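Usage

Read records sequentially. Each one opens with the input sequence:
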Amino acid sequence: MSHVLSEKTRRLPGEAGVWIFVGADMLMFGLFFTSFVIERSKNVELYNLSQQALNFNYGGINTLILLTSSWFVVLAVHAAKMDKVRHVAYLLAAGALCGLAFCVLKVVEYTEKISHGISMLTNDFFMYYFILTGIHFFHVIVGTVMLFILCRKALAGTYHSRNVLWLESGATYWHMVDLLWIILFPLLYLMR
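and closes with the structure output:
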């Protein structure tokens, strides 16, 4: 008995190369997270005391900002698949503006820490804090630029139901950035 494939076959969204990059990046961050947890277990008191210098509100607001941004990106991909071409650019712009808001708040947070004499040389906790959030911050900057580029292409009507591959690739990267923050936030700001 032969099976007839439907027009819409299941596949991973986006380019395969993006998934390889995402996997490698997640593995790298996984090693960083593991290293952080191991080092934290050696001096829990220092890590807990240092953690009190972090502003939970900044971390929480940035979590909401990135979740909202990912929601806009999901809606943009869905709009393209539904041939709502005009909506795609607006939704991507909203996602990118959320990325900018994250960046601004992170700069405010870094500035506050540095003005209080806290740097990556303060202790092991802050070394991890600045390295982990700094690498993530770089990912957010790259992702935000990418969302603006996708938005520009969307304004030209590039993305629709027959052309979503690069839009899905960009969305995959952006969701990875969001997922990393969802792990970083409790690891740095909440774990006791």
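Summary fields computed downstream for this record:
- DSSP finds six helices and no strands in the chain.
- Confidence is low (pLDDT under 50) at residues 1-6.
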